[in-house]
Amino acid sequence: MARSVHDRYRAAFVDAIARALGAPPAEIEPHVKAAEPQHGDLSFPTFAFAKALRRPPPAIATDLATRVEAPGMRVAAAGPYLNARFEPQPFTGEVIEAARSAGLAYGGSEAGAGKTVVIDYSSPNIAKSIAFHHIRSTMIGHALVNLYRSQGWRVEGINYLGDWGKQFGLVAVGFQEYGDPARRDDVAHLVDVYIKANARAERDPAFDERARTFFKRMEDGDPEALKLWQEFRESSLRDFQQVYARLGVEFQHYEGESRYQGKMDAVIERIATQPGVKSDEGALIVDLPYAENEPPVLLRKNDGSTLYATRDLAAAIDRYERFRFDRALYVVATDQSLHFRQFFRVLKAMGYEWADRLVHVNFGRVGGMSTRKGQIVLLTDVLDEAKSRALDKVQENVKAGRIHTDDPDALAEQVGLGAVVFGDLKNRRATDYQFDWEEVLSFEGHTGPYLQYAHARACNILKKG
Ligand code: ARG
Fold this sequence. Notes:
This protein is α/β, with parallel strands linked by helices. It has 17 helices and 14 strands.
């Protein structure tokens, strides 16, 4: 695999420092890091060399700045650091040249050949209203899938649907009260029923009990209950799949929590032998040393039903058996950090070596996300909203003569999708941010529409030239 332009510059910087210090490059290499953007591209902290050189780090950096010569880079000291900034030329020209000759393979490698990564992403809940976090998970997960593939890994993308749990009981009994039998396959209606049923359950314990009983029937394999659940699941899935098609996202596997139905006893038995289980107010918990105030890992409630954590334990073991992964990622909101920390810990305590290969790829919350119609309930709503807002912008620009198009509708779809995807991925993954339609749809600045506009203009120049 050819080295990237960046790698070449990095190696030249390392060599130049090594020459100036009279040290082998291998000794310098591990110290060179990406610089803080305001300081340039690469940074060499001198701390580790202070002792041998008997000089304070800033003095070393200042001295190196006068002696290190690296072609195509401006080298300067900032306190104890020696920084290098790539000159716009020739660096930019070389990158463009490399990208043009490599095409889509640009940036790729075979570093992951023979390795497998399992990526659990998107994973929305069925018949429940969604939060923006499922779209974040979808887009971050999809980006990770592409990145791993580009580095030669075998990727198994899993959409682990939230398709099991008491919420189905709520939808089912809620449907008897608030549902329209003719609208059984209308997801928006199901979500509506769920919201009503949820509110009702909070003030009406008998209703809540009915929902619980319904879910218990599902867990006990009652065919009638399961048939209804199957119907709801299929309509939700159809709705999600439309969105995935619009976004160009594909999963190798659609499965869900329901897959582990009936397989949980075996897992609980294993946990019982190592590290052990105990009962806690009638519920079954994992016997672990817990920190003060740490909620214990629940495996079974006192009515016998299982939990999210129980299913995730079963799922991790199942995934390892199926894929023998070298790494398994869970692209899930930061809110669930405790859940992941805990169940990874349980797997480790069960004696699974591979527990160290599990990674929670967390991400921050998004605020301010709602549509003109109000609160977002479906994935589709977000994309429809993006499109309709983009259409306004497109029409504005067509009128002003800035944009020419025969098909404003198709263009609005592309601009809208680009805006949502770019507007999300440009943020630091773990940071919370405020979503602002005006901002993500702006044709100026660091936005999807700007990027697409720049691309269209570049194509136009090429065409004219
Ligand atoms: N369905 C869950 C939710 O919406 C996310 C599932 C993430 N994946 C997992 N293996 N727990 O919160």
